[in-house]
Structures are given as structure tokens and as C-alpha cells.
Amino acid sequence: MPDIELLERQLTARVHASAQPSEVLRAPEIRQLYAQIRTLDASQRAEFGARVNALKLSIEQAIAARQAELDYVELPPIDVTAPMDVNAALPALLPAEQGSQHPLTREIARISEIFGRMGFVTEQSREIDDQYHMFESLNFPKGHPARDDYDTFMTVETDREQEPLIAPAHTSTMQNRTLVKYRDQLERGEAIAAIVPDRVFRNEDLDARHEHTFYQVEGIYVARGVHAGMLVATLKKFLEEYYGRQLEVRVNPFYFPFTEPSFEFALSCPFCEHGCNVCSQSKWIELLGCGMIHPNVLRAADIDPEVYTGFAFGCGIDRLVMMKYGIEDVRHFESAKLDFLRQF
Ligand code: DAH
Q1: Is residue 92 part of a domain?
Q2: Which stretches of 151-191 are assigned E, i.e. beta strand?
Q3: By alpha-carbon position, which residue is closest to atom 7 of ligand 1?
Q4: Ligand 1: distance of its center to the CA of 189 in Å?
Q5: Phi first, then psi: what are they for 148, rounded to 5°?
Q6: Distance 125 CA to ligand 1 centre (A)
Q7: Residues 166 and 281 in one domain
């Protein structure tokens, strides 16, 4: 008589060691046991048959357990925080070493670095503000029609003045705070020189040139005897550094409540001599708004406009970066699409 218990131990060990455990059921030893049942006489057959069946059942259970173990181990580890398309046939995980900075983050660092070399400190904006900073301190009194030029997102909650709070629609919302923060420097004979590159929000109809969330860089410079020539020279220098080539600039009169006079600032297309797609064949690109800071804005920050003057500017960063890299749709920036991001 074969030693069924010994065989069961051997087969179970084989199951545990196997990468294809169900194969063990086809072992010749098992076939031989079944063949043997028929050769036994009736008195032994029932009991022996039952023991063989029990052996088979036990092996089957071991196989199921082993298979579960194999299935578990073979699953690829899933990082639930990884950005990936869960509907893709084969979701590809983003290896950490291939991560990269968002192009806007990188370009903002570059902008800060260029202005830093010109003596400007970098300040941050905020994601919620009040109407005083967004409008009033910038010489938009209550009911001023130019408030409507900003498609402003407002909250249901109101501030102390019972007015809705605002998701800032321009980085100019930081002008008053920046002037107040650095006001003391003026008395020590130093200039106030700051940029604020940060996120802004507008309730826009979205298309290739308009996003509800985008970036601006605000510039503020105040000292004794500041004039518009310094504004033009500063912006021209910045743009030439940023695009790495010499540019011509053009200044046209414009209107903003917080500057007087106000200008619209254009640069010669950095990419062509005779017209191209980037400049819509015009050779000029209207890039930003700027001007001499309005006396009321200085007064709101307790700075005497009889003694000090200054310039300010506000430039869309997305546009600047799109032109630099030939990006055709502003919505790529907020899309979180790896195909786009991995190009940087
Ligand atoms: N805040 C303006 C806007 O978003 C841009 C701007 C224009 C900012 C002129 C300035 C400025 O500081 O002087 O439309």
C-alpha cells in the first residue's frame, strides 16, 4: 500500500514551490493512485478510494491558496497618488525621477531672477482678497465703471464692509500692501522695488487665449524723481533678458485708474522681422499695461506724491511663456496633461 500521508506532504510541498500549482494535480503519483483503486478488492476499495479523494481535495485547497498568493504578488504596486490616465489600457506610472517643474513655475523663477538682478524683491499675491485692495486702494472708488472691466469671481460671504470677497483678478491687488510694507525704505533714501508674480482669476469665456486661472507679474518702483523713461528702460531690459535678444518697444497711451499717465506697452516681435503667426503679421506684440503710479494710490499707502513718484506695470505671464515656447493654447497650462508637461 502506498503511504498516502507521505505523498500528501510531498505534493503539498511541490504546490508551495510551484509557479503553476495546478500542474501538481497532473502528477503521475496521483494518476497511479486512481489506477490502483480499480485493482483492489471490494473490501478495501471504498476506504482507499475515500483516502485518495481526501488527498485530492487537500491538494486542491493548497493549490487555491498558492494561486492566491501568486496572484497577489504579481500585481504591480499601485501608487494611488500617481498622475495617470486610469482609462488607459496600460496605466503607466510616472517614475519619480522623471518628474519636472511646471513650465510656469520655472519661468516665474526665471522672471524673479532677472528682476532680482535689477534690485527688485519678489512678493507673493493671495487667492482671496477684499474690495479695498482689489479696487479702492487702486483709485477705483465704489461704483467706478472700470470695476466692470474685471470679470471678477466673488464669494457669497461678505467682509466687514458687507461686500463680497474676491478671487483677485489682477496682481495689482498687492500694490497697496507692498507700498505699505516697504514705505520705511523711502525715508532711508532707498527705492521701493518689488515684483509680484502670481496667480489671478477671472470669470472668462474659455478659449485658446483665455483661462479662468492665469498668471501675472506686477511691478512696482517708487523713489524720488522716478519718471516714465525709467519704466520703459526697465521693461525693455527685462524683455531683452527674457527673450535673449535685442528688441524694440512701443508705448501708446491707455487708461487705468491706478496710473496717470497709463500706457499700453508693445514689443517688436521677438520671432520675426517681417510678420509671422505669433505677431499676427503685425511685427508688434501688445504685451502689458503700465504707467506712472496715480497720486491717490501713493496717498492710500501714506506716501507723499509731492515727494515720491513711481511706476507700475502688469504683464500676463502665460502669454510671455506661450510666445517663448510656441505654445498655441493657454489651457495646456492648467490641463495637468503629462504629454504637455513632459516637454519641459
Ligand atoms: N492690473 C492690470 C490688469 O490686470 C494690469 C496693469 C496695468 C497693472 C497697469 C499695472 C499697471 O500695475 O500700472 O489689467
Answers
A1: no
A2: 153-158, 164-167
A3: 289
A4: 27
A5: -70, -15
A6: 14
A7: yes
Based on the structure, what is the number of domains in the chain?
Answer: 2
Range(s) of the domain holding residue 231:
101-341
Residue 107 maps to a domain:
yes
Same domain, 203 and 337: yes
Measured from the CA of 314, which atom of ligand 1 is nearest?
8
* Residue 199 CA to ligand 1 centre (angstroms): 14
> Which grid coordinates belong to 143?
461704483
Distance from the CA of 149 to the center of ligand 1, in angstroms?
12
How far, rounded to the nearest angstrom, does the alpha carbon of residue 171 sit from its chain's CA centroid?
18
- Nearest ligand 1 atom to the CA of 171 is 1
In order of 218, 342, 344, the CA distances from 339 in angstroms are 31, 6, 10
Half-sphere exposure of 332 (CA within 13 A, CB side): 20
Q: What is the pLDDT along the chain (344 residues), one digit of tens a residue?
A: 678 899 999 999 999 999 999 999 999 999 999 898 889 888 888 899 999 999 999 999 999 999 988 887 655 666 666 666 555 556 565 555 667 889 999 999 999 999 999 999 999 999 999 999 999 999 999 999 988 889 999 999 998 889 999 999 999 999 999 999 999 999 999 999 999 999 999 999 999 989 999 999 999 999 999 999 999 999 999 999 999 999 999 999 999 999 999 999 999 998 888 888 888 898 999 999 999 999 999 999 999 999 999 999 999 999 999 999 999 999 999 998 888 988 88
User: Distance (Å, rounded) from C-alpha 27 to C-alpha 262?
Assistant: 91
The set of protein residues with a Cβ atom below 6 angstroms from ligand 1 is 170, 172, 218, 256, 259, 289-291, 312-314
Span from the CA of 280 to the centroid of ligand 1 (angstroms): 23
Structure pTM? 0.73
Residue 221 domain-assigned? yes
Tell whether omega for the bond before 295 is within 30 degrees of 0, i.e. cis.
no
